[in-house]
């Protein structure tokens, strides 16, 4: 029996009101430990005579006291609902279907909310919703909580009411109408039927008004070509899954070419099935995601690409247009002949911003009767016209514009002649900018009209002709904002809100479907007819293109990076810290140069003592305009005589200081042409890059990324092209998979999770990286910490170049090493293999915690903070972790991240976790880790457990594909498949038995629950 006796340490304790007892009870350490005497500053520390024993005693006591104090967490008061909304259950996520288009990016998405707070973007996988979120759209959830947003309207820089704004705009419009002066609505591509109708009604009421569409990154030449050939302003929506041969001339269709979202269809054809896979030729100057995925990549200047396009046109149409001689002409003719042989299974695309080039693309695909090329369901997401924008600029300079109303554009930043625009704006009687931020344009207009984020707005969108999507708010507006459409309604004298207008207008666009059904699904798919071709003299276009003369000097190709795109989200720390898939550099844009040009202009890259990457600065000059102190990256695969520079950087207005990085490439975007003649000169100083991957090549380590050719894959046994590594057991060579250092247990009971990664399908797009950030509260650490190799990404996408022409030749070179020294010895040979080839093959490999069944991290943790579950997940108990980092040292995959600092509520890391608004994005199901603990991929255990509990509550088994991780859910190419291998009907159970399956570093014997598929290449 337990004793109820009470013991006293002194008689004084019998006195219930004793102040002495109360004081002692609250003061464990009666005397203050004098640690400050010898730990206070450097001088006292150096003069201290304290013994090591005393030091450890003091530190031990003070640490214990601090630990006890830390157990008493801060008090956070919860305020309950007065009337709880019926549809909100605390702890349960709600999902809302919506379609998003911001003028550059678009997708059909689901928005995850918790207690009315949007916290994550997922892909909408309902039938008909074919456009998945890229990295920027996944990150856009954080832009909702941007503390630098414009929080109320301003007139002449001072806060104002919406009534004052409406009155001022109405008065200006009325005055312009009376005086017969121009009223201009300058917007990005709207792609919204209801908004376009509103604009048309405004123009009908105001005869002097006109609508000018301006895309910051122009697709005008392709639009002009399609309009000439088919009579409507749109872009072709290609279906690469229907092509057996793809030829791309400067089109980064796995990046942002024509809006992107082509990776899903492309990946379907790249996974070998029934002994076949699509073949892909790429002609390009910059190294792109698309070039990295190609079977044959030919580096080529844009001037030569134009000649190559005419040569291909000649082969396909039996034409005889005279062309200039170009390098690698044999490869171009070879690709053209294979394209002709492929017929309707072939397709050609081009990113050359030249109307004649785009006309040839249409002609070639028409001649092929390409199945991947269809004018049914054309893309409506680019409508800008260079000609009309230039006319507007001329009108502004001439003082012909009375009232200028802008929405979704930032010309003071994106125009190459922004200074001239700023000066001309002073001649306008009233200028209005509807903007999320007080950006470069909003800060100089008469009225800065604060607009809501798309997650706070109603809208509709037609991404492709025949489809209709609704954008619905998932949270009430956080600030005093108003939609551009509501102001237009007011100017038109219409009653009601834009929601009412939208709902009334939708009935004509969703024939037969109900509003609630479309709102629930987020997308409606209707019928669409093919565009009618007109008579076009394609031969004349080919002749003009063939006679285009190459300018003397270097070519500068301006492009958009996977991270920042056109720069709308430059204040988004997730995107700034996102490593570029090709260069692996974050927090910067830079000019890319070939190794030959770098040597010619004495430009350098090198790694310093702490492992950081440094590079030269350069000055770029285009048509008399200088762009100074541009960092230089020597890029393998860059065509000699060409340079690359990304848009979206160099912004200053409404950005936190940490996000004001890079240089503004728009300043060189003359005539909206992405190719400029440039001169480059080395500048003084050296730039410090934040590069997350210092090793560039595999150096012949074929067990990390296994690959083979389609011919070998089809003709030989899997043991030859997917060889199991060997180890020594009792002095005999045996398969590594047959040897265990630990006793295994039965894993066939219950769930057992595996993640499959297909190297053939992975394009390196990085959507999984941002999705992981959002789901798991991964902190942003900033450029300096990334440079110190302290990035916190739970998932990385390793990018490897071949040293020789191919990875296979790397292996041959390694096998040919003879001895240790000399060029043919392993020391000299491996030194050479550290350098990528001038036109290397590229491979991407996503790597996260491998969740090893025999995990080396678990055996060395002294406090059992990391342990294994029966379901195959490696757990981390953060409150047990003491930060020894033994686990990181023992991990062969190097996937564990140590919290060097407190990244939450710390002004030293002034990102979203440092302000109350930014922390609204945090997932309450995942702990925010503190300083001094180790963290890594959890295989999204909170998601798997939620799925299990949901099925249990509903009294059913879990269906295949219900189990997801953040990365597998975000992967639009199908490269990542997650599931329960104990479910024989699951897709992952089939994949684990596939001949292409292998584990990373299989010879180590860790038995991972993540597995990969051998990369198969065409020869």
If you had to describe this structure to a student in words, what would you say it looks like?
28% of the residues lie in helices and 19% in strands. The chain is α/β, with parallel strands linked by helices and 1019 residues long. Among the domains are: 1-70, no CATH class; 238-368, Dimethylsulfoxide Reductase, domain 2. The strands form 11 sheets. The protein has a 7-stranded mixed beta sheet, sandwiched between helices. It has a 6-stranded mixed beta barrel with strand order 18-24-20-23-22-25. A hairpin with a 5-residue loop joins strand 32 and strand 33. The model is unreliable at 59-63 and 65-72 (pLDDT under 50). It comes from Flavobacterium luteum. Pfam families: Fer4_11. InterPro entries: 4Fe4S_Fe-S-bd, TAT_var_transloc_signal_dom.
CATH class of one domain: Alpha Beta
CATH topology of one domain, by name, is Dimethylsulfoxide Reductase, domain 2
Strand order of the largest sheet: 5-4-14-13-12-6-7
- The strand count comes to 39
Secondary-structure content class: alpha/beta
| Unreliable runs | 59-63, 65-72
What is the CATH homologous superfamily assignment of one domain? Dimethylsulfoxide Reductase, domain 2
Report the CATH architecture of one domain. Answer: 3-Layer(aba) Sandwich
Large-scale geometry: globular
Average predicted confidence as pLDDT: 90
């Amino acid at each position: 029996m337990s004793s109820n006796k009470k013991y006293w340490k002194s008689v004084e304790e019998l006195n219930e009101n004793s102040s002495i007892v109360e004081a002692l009870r609250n003061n464990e350490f009666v005397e203050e430990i004098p640690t400050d005497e010898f730990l206070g500053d450097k001088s006292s520390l150096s003069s201290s005579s304290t013994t090591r024993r005393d030091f450890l005693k003091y530190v031990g006591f003070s640490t214990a006291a601090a630990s006890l104090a830390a157990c008493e967490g801060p008090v956070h008061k919860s305020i309950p609902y007065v009337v709880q909304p019926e549809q909100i259950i605390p702890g349960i996520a709600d999902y809302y279907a919506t379609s998003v288009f911001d003028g550059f990016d678009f997708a059909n998405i689901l928005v995850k909310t918790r207690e009315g707070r949007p916290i994550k973007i997922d892909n909408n996988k309902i039938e008909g919703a074919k456009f998945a979120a890229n990295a920027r759209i996944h990150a856009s959830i954080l832009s909702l909580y941007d503390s630098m947003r414009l929080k109320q309207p301003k007139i002449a820089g001072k806060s104002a009411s919406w009534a004052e704004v409406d009155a001022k705009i109405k008065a200006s419009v009325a005055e312009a109408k009376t005086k017969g002066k121009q009223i201009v609505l300058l917007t990005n591509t709207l792609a919204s039927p209801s908004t376009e109708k509103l604009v048309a009604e405004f123009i009908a009421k105001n005869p002097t008004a006109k609508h000018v569409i301006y895309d910051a990154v122009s697709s005008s030449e392709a639009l002009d070509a399609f309009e000439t050939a088919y009579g409507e302003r749109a872009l072709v929506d290609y279906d690469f899954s229907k092509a057996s041969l793809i030829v791309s001339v400067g089109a980064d269709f796995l990046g942002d070419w024509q809006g992107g979202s082509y990776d899903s269809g492309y990946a379907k054809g790249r996974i070998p099935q029934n002994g076949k896979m699509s073949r892909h030729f790429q002609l390009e100057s910059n190294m792109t995601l698309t070039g990295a995925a190609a079977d044959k990549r030919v580096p080529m200047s844009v001037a030569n690409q134009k000649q190559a396009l005419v040569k291909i046109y000649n082969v396909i149409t039996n034409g005889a247009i005279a062309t200039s001689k170009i390098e690698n002409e044999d490869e171009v003719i070879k690709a053209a002949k294979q394209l002709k042989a492929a017929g309707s299974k072939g397709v050609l695309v081009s990113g050359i911003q030249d109307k004649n080039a785009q006309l040839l693309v249409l002609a070639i695909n028409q001649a092929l009767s390409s199945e991947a090329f269809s004018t049914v369901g054309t893309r409506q997401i680019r409508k800008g016209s260079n000609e009309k924008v230039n006319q507007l600029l001329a009108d502004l300079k001439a003082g012909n514009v009375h009232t200028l109303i802008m929405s979704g554009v930032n010309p003071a930043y994106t125009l190459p002649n922004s200074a001239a625009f700023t000066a001309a704006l002073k001649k306008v009687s009233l200028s209005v900018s509807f903007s999320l931020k007080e950006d470069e344009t909003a800060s100089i207009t008469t009225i800065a009209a604060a607009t809501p984020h798309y997650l706070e707005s109603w809208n509709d969108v037609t991404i492709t002709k025949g489809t209709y999507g609704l954008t619905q708010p998932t949270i009430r507006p956080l600030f005093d904002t108003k939609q551009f459409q509501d102001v237009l309604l007011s100017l038109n004298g219409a009653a009601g809100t834009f929601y009412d207008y939208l709902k009334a207008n939708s009935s004509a666009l969703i024939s037969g479907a109900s509003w609630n059904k479309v709102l629930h699904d987020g997308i409606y798919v209707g019928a669409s007819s093919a565009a009618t071709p007109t008579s076009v003299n394609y031969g004349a276009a080919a002749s003009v293109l063939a006679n285009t003369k190459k300018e003397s000097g270097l070519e500068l190709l301006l492009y958009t990076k996977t991270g920042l795109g056109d720069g709308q989200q430059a204040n988004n720390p997730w995107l700034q810290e996102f490593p570029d898939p090709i260069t692996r550099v974050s927090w910067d844009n830079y000019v890319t140069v070939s190794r030959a040009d770098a040597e010619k202009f004495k430009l350098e890259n090198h790694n310093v003592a702490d492992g950081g990457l440094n590079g030269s600065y350069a000055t770029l000059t285009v048509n008399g305009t200088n762009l100074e102190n541009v960092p230089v990256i020597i890029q393998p695969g860059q065509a000699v005589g060409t340079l690359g520079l990304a848009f979206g950087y160099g912004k200053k207005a409404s950005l936190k200081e940490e996000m004001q990085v890079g240089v503004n490439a728009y300043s060189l975007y003359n005539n909206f042409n992405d190719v400029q003649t440039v001169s480059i000169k080395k500048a003084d100083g050296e730039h410090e890059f934040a590069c997350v991957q210092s090793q560039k090549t595999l150096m012949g380590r074929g067990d990390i990324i296994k690959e083979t050719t389609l011919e070998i894959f089809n003709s030989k046994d899997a043991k030859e092209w997917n060889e199991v590594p060997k180890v020594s057991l009792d002095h005999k060579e045996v398969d590594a998979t047959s040897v265990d250092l630990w006793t295994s247990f039965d894993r066939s009971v219950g769930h057992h999770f595996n993640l499959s990664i297909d190297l053939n399908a992975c394009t390196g797009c990085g959507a999984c990286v941002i999705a992981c950030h959002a789901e798991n509260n991964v902190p942003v650490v900033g450029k300096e910490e990334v440079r110190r190799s302290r990035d916190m990404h739970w998932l990385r996408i390793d990018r490897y170049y071949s040293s020789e022409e191919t990875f296979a030749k790397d292996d041959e070179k390694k096998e040919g090493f003879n001895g240790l020294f000399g060029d043919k010895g392993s020391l000299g040979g491996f030194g050479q293999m550290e350098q990528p080839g001038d036109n290397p093959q590229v491979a991407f490999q996503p790597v996260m915690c491998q969740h090893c069944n025999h995990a080396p991290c678990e055996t060395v943790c002294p406090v059992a903070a990391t342990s294994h579950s029966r379901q195959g997940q490696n757990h981390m108990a953060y409150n047990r972790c003491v930060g020894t980092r033994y686990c990181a040292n023992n991990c062969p995959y190097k996937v564990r991240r140590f919290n060097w600092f407190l990244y939450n509520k710390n002004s030293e890391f002034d990102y979203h976790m440092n302000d109350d608004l930014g922390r609204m994005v945090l997932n309450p199901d995942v702990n925010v880790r503190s300083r001094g603990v180790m963290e890594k991929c959890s295989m999204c255990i909170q998601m798997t457990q939620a799925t299990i509990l949901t099925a249990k509550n509903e009294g059913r088994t879990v269906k295949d594909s219900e189990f997801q991780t953040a990365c597998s859910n975000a992967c639009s190419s199908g490269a990542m498949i997650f599931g329960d291998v104990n479910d024989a009907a699951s897709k992952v159970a089939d994949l684990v038995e596939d001949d292409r399956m292998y584990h990373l570093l299989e010879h180590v014997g860790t038995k991972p629950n993540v597995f990969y598929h051998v990369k198969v290449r065409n020869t």
